[in-house]
Amino acid sequence: MAVKKQPAPYAQLYSGDFPVGANYQQAWIPVRCAEHHFEYLKTGVACSCAPGPAIHMLMTAAREICAGGQRGGMKSETGRGWLMKGNPYEPQDHAVNQSYVNHPQYRALVLRENEKDLADWLSRAKMLYGKLGATVTEKPARVSWPSGATFVCGHLKDDSAWTDYQGQEFHRMVFEELTQIPKELLYELVIASCRSTFLCRDGCVRGQCRCGVLVPQVFTTTNPGGPGHGWVKNRFVSLGQPNVVYKTGGGTRIFIPSRLEDNPYLMRDEAYKAALENISDDNMRRAWRYGDWDIAAGQYFPTFRVKPNPDEPPEARHVIPTGSRVLLPWWPRWLSMDWGFKHHAACHVWCYDQQQGQTIAYREHGFTGTGSTEIGESIAKALLPDLERARSAGANPNFNLYLSPEQFGKRDEGDTVPELLAKGIQRVLGPDSVYIPELWGDGGNPGREFAAQRKLGVTIQRAKNARVPGWQTMREMMRWKPLAQPAMDKFDPEYAAILFQQDPLRWQRYNEAFQAPKKREILPKLLIYDSCPGLIKGIVEAVHKDETEDVLKTDTPGDDFLESGRYGVHSFDPTKAKEPDGVYVQRMVSEAGATDMNSVYMISRHAEEQLKLAGNNSSGLVLGRMSGRRAKMRVN
Ligand SMILES: [Zn+2]
Ligand SMILES: [Zn+2]
Description:
Elements: H1 12-15, H2 24-27, H3 37-43, H4 53-59, E1 64-69, H5 75-82, H6 95-98, E2 107-112, H7 115-130, E3 135-137, E4 142-144, E5 150-155, H8 161-164, E6 172-175, H9 184-191, E7 217-222, H10 229-235, E8 246-248, E9 251-258, H11 264-267, H12 270-277, H13 282-288, E10 319-320, E11 333-339, E12 345-353, E13 358-367, H14 372-392, E14 398-403, E15 411-412, E16 415-416, H15 417-429, E17 434-435, H16 437-440, H17 447-452, E18 457-462, H18 467-477, H19 493-502, H20 504-513, E19 526-529, H21 533-541, H22 557-570, H23 581-592, H24 597-613, H25 621-635
Parallel strand pairs: 1-7, 1-9, 2-5, 2-6, 6-7, 10-19, 11-14, 13-19, 14-18, 17-18
Antiparallel strand pairs: 3-4, 4-5, 8-9, 11-12, 12-13, 15-16
Helix pairs in contact: 14-15, 18-22, 19-20, 21-22, 23-24, 24-25
Bound molecules: zinc ion (2 copies).
One zinc ion binds next to loops.
């Protein structure tokens, strides 16, 4: 079919002499109902069953569509048809509403995993689009339409794939195998180019627009598993209900699951179905055959939950709303900071809940292109209220800041990073507020004295750097599943009988050991406020580095937040932190349940004596308050 490649002037689209162009629906018929699809092809009569996922994918107006689920769910094929669809809700007598390929400036981007997949996609595209007069070439990988519309195709293994497409205008994008993209940021950088300068000019009501509108949309296909499993699950699968459009920060998203059963062509192939059902690897089978997203596919933190899955206990969650916990002022607090390249810096503020035994990341700071002194200043400003409350509660108002170790030797405009941070902190908290033991030694500015003075301040220390033990500490702190009970020997009735004769107490213990273990709920030891998105994202996206126990580094800002998280949980053991003397005395009083002033006085005196014996200097906080009240009582 010799088609003169001569783009029609855009104005022709409205003049009426531009014919209704390629009718893609004659070349490609989506599967409306898998069960009656072949009948429909034969008779042309549609059944009355509810439309299947392919129709949802073609009709949804969501900006980002994620077609995910089982292998063989026809997602790729639907994606090829989707690229041709028009504006289904607008009058179909207009060429562009019928199909975007009739628009001379329509541009689409197709990204596949690697060169081989791309070649496969192009050969299938040739069969389908060729029927409508399109030319498909491999070098460059393009689909060119008679109207002038173009599909640009590429693959992700090409180093320039990410940068080449940024900044251009693509009205539609198709990503195949989305979970092959390890980091959400890479995806976000490319979809930033999904936009349109061809929008409705006349403010038409819906159903009456003949402006030749090109609505920007992204279509992704994916199966569970792969290095991007975590972020894809989080971005689409965990949105809420499938097949429902959700509004998110930047636009709208929908997750449309599809099953092998939705593909009438593959369902005829018993061998294909059997092959999927007989995959020996448990995770792979659950992912490919059953589209199960709850598999631990190479994720480093498989038990991490932004929220619990439907079949999991409520304590299976690590992200909690900001401010949902009362963080008492005397609980241990500390900071962690990762100083990345090019002035990327990530910082977290932590608090240890002494009642529940949980560590909570409650504040996050992220900086790019900011000088160290400014960073110190801004962190100190945010920290000031916490320090002041700690001091008034009688706790040590000097928090440790654990900084990435490599910063202690590096010079940044003459001073080291910790020294520049110190300058910034001092601007807010005063000249004697920072102490860096490693650089300043114990001589000039003795840290202990400094803490004893109860001055507000920060002590900058080297973070513990061992990567694998650090990651494992994080993982262990996330645990919410009870450990499996150790295997027990079989109950031996003869031995029990002997024990009963000899020692009833041992007999009783022996019996108890074989009773069904009580179900114990386990609270995860690590919680994160939802105002710490960098850390949450870093954990969700973390994958194993090859076959090692280390986390793969990707040199994106997400790395910095995750590293800061590791420093935070691994550099400091809050369980060893002592509660302030005043709090100890108060706790003794309340635990004794004393009500009358006399016994309150006696118990607090006793607690203070205990502290003195233990070699602590009592703050006198509680006692002072108590004596005050006593004095008043006497007056009355
Ligand atoms: Zn049907
Ligand atoms: Zn319009």
